[in-house]
UniProtKB/TrEMBL annotation:
Subcellular location field: Cytoplasm
Classification via PROSITE patterns: EPSP_SYNTHASE_1
GO cellular component, one term: cytoplasm
Assigned protein family: Belongs to the EPSP synthase family.
Function: Catalyzes the transfer of the enolpyruvyl moiety of phosphoenolpyruvate (PEP) to the 5-hydroxyl of shikimate-3-phosphate (S3P) to produce enolpyruvyl shikimate-3-phosphate and inorganic phosphate.
Binding annotation for 3-phosphoshikimate: K22, S23, R27, S168, Q170, D316, K343
Source taxonomy: Bacteria, Bacillati, Bacillota, Bacilli, Bacillales
Protein name: 3-phosphoshikimate 1-carboxyvinyltransferase
Keyword Kinase annotated: no
Organism from which the protein derives: Melghirimyces thermohalophilus
Residue spans crossing the bilayer: none
Pathway noted in the entry: Metabolic intermediate biosynthesis; chorismate biosynthesis; chorismate from D-erythrose 4-phosphate and phosphoenolpyruvate: step 6/7
Length: 427
């Protein structure tokens, strides 16, 4: 198990870019696999999660060539191009891979067994299995089909209207992908808007996607047309560098070509509300996704209260936002974030536990955290618990901890941010 050592620092500076967006990289492979023609992807994230997606689709007979770590080519042959896999599909640590892929498999007239690692085995799959069964797919698994390993036999789907109890892009995307293979219309409603990369990329692949105020729908029987995809930098990865620069005295960094989709950029809004100096320079759109450069300067932060519709816009950034809150004047309250409990770890519990090891004042609540700052953190040993975002949040905290921080199980970071350690030490 890799160990990451972070020393206390001052004056971070640099002009850098972060690896490609994980959500968009997964979708580029999957949509390329079901499209007609060749999809070339530049800026692909070669993180463990997206490599799991490539592996699963290769096992279903889709030719995927890697020309370099960030440059791939997917040879799609339409929905019918996918074949019944001989082997079990292993999604590793990736919730996005399993939930989106189940939407594709739900319409395929063959049998598949899907599994993942210990973390995936604890994450709820009934949120997609139940509506897929309503559409006509046969999905079985542990605990009445709620947990991996899952077995699915697809085909013969009928469109449904599904009011999702959670704002989840994975649920929404799964059902839209099944809906494209169903008879009639499939509509997904969500309590507040989750990330809309699927809607944007399907549109770019020639699919008609209808959005209105409280939902999104597709008509069945549509095909996708291959196209080239340029993947922006992942704002969820950039968030670690943003917080690093904001809390480390005398810092200023620029992060180039970051994806600034308005359903994803809540972290920029909240860090600015905390008093963070973040300058945004828009750079246009890549494949329907807004992109820009971020210049971030060390700032005196103050506490903030967040909840409601903001939460889905920064759900993956909450562990590192908690680190920022330990350095902010006053109280930070995070509410309505119970979804954090079903990520790679229980991110409410684990974030609070790891930050407390450094002397932070963090209280867990049912649906979030209350953090008091500012606190001079003190060095200690932290553990990622196999969760990439916890490992990186602990590392960022180490930059302002007296005596630095050692992160155990740091290899988890490769799930979304290969090269994190080298990039941080370059700054
Ligand atoms: O659709 C996606 O690419 C993702 C959606 C989010 O999960 P939920 O849809 O479960 O909220 C997010 O946490 C995950 O990192 C990626
Ligand atoms: C929750 C995450 O990913 P996934 O659901 O794809 O495992 C994440 O990257 O923080």
């Amino acid at each position: 198990m890799a160990i990451l050592r972070i020393e206390e620092r001052r004056g971070l500076s640099g002009d850098v870019s972060v690896p490609g967006d994980k959500s968009i990289s997964h979708r580029a492979v999957m949509f390329g696999a079901i499209a007609q023609g060749t999809t070339r992807v530049e800026g692909f994230l070669p993180g463990a999660d997206c490599l799991s997606t490539i592996d699963c689709f290769r096992k279903m007979g889709v030719p995927i060539r890697q020309h370099g770590p960030t440059s791939i080519e997917v040879e799609g042959n339409g929905w019918e191009g996918m074949k019944e896999p001989e082997a079990v599909l292993d999604v590793g640590n990736s919730g996005t891979t399993i939930r989106l892929m189940l939407g594709i498999l739900a319409g395929r007239p063959f049998h598949t067994i899907v599994t993942g690692d210990d973390s995936i085995a604890r994450r709820p799959m009934d949120r997609v299995a139940k509506p897929l069964r309503r559409m006509g797919a046969r999905v079985e698994g542990r605990a009445e089909g709620s947990y991996t390993p899952l077995s699915i036999r697809g085909g013969g789907l009928k469109g449904i209207t599904y009011p999702s109890p959670v704002a989840s892009a994975q649920v929404k995307s799964c059902l839209l992908l099944a809906g494209l293979q169903a008879e009639g219309r499939t509509r997904v409603e969500e309590p507040s808007l989750s990330r809309d990369h699927t809607e944007r990329m399907l549109t770019a692949f020639g699919v008609r996607v209808n959005r209105d105020l409280d939902g999104v729908s597709v008509e069945g029987g549509q095909t996708l047309q291959a196209r080239d995809v340029r993947v922006p930098g992942d704002i969820s990865s950039a968030a670690f560098l943003m917080v690093a620069a904001l809390i480390t005295p005398e810092s200023q960094i620029t992060i180039r070509n970051v994806g600034l989709n308005p359903t994803r950029d809540g972290i920029v809004d909240v860090l600015r509300e905390m008093g963070g100096d973040i300058q945004v320079t828009p750079k246009g759109e890549w494949c329907g996704e807004p992109v820009g450069d971020l210049t971030v300067t060390y700032s005196r932060l103050k506490g903030v209260e967040i909840g409601g519709k903001m939460i889905p816009r920064l759900i993956d950034e909450i562990p590192v936002l908690a680190v920022a809150a330990t350095q902010a004047e006053g109280q930070t309250v995070i509410r309505d974030a119970a979804e954090l409990k079903v990520k790679e770890t229980d991110r409410i519990h684990i974030t609070a536990q790891e930050l407390r090891k450094l002397g932070a004042r963090v209280e867990e609540t049912d649906d979030g955290m209350v953090i008091e700052g500012p606190v001079q953190l003190t060095g200690n040993r932290c553990n990622s618990h196999g969760d990439h975002r916890i490992g990186m949040a602990a590392a960022v905290a180490g930059l302002v901890a007296e005596g630095g921080v050692t992160v155990d199980q740091a290899d988890a970071i490769d799930v979304s941010f290969p090269g994190f350690e080298a990039l941080l030490s370059e700054l």
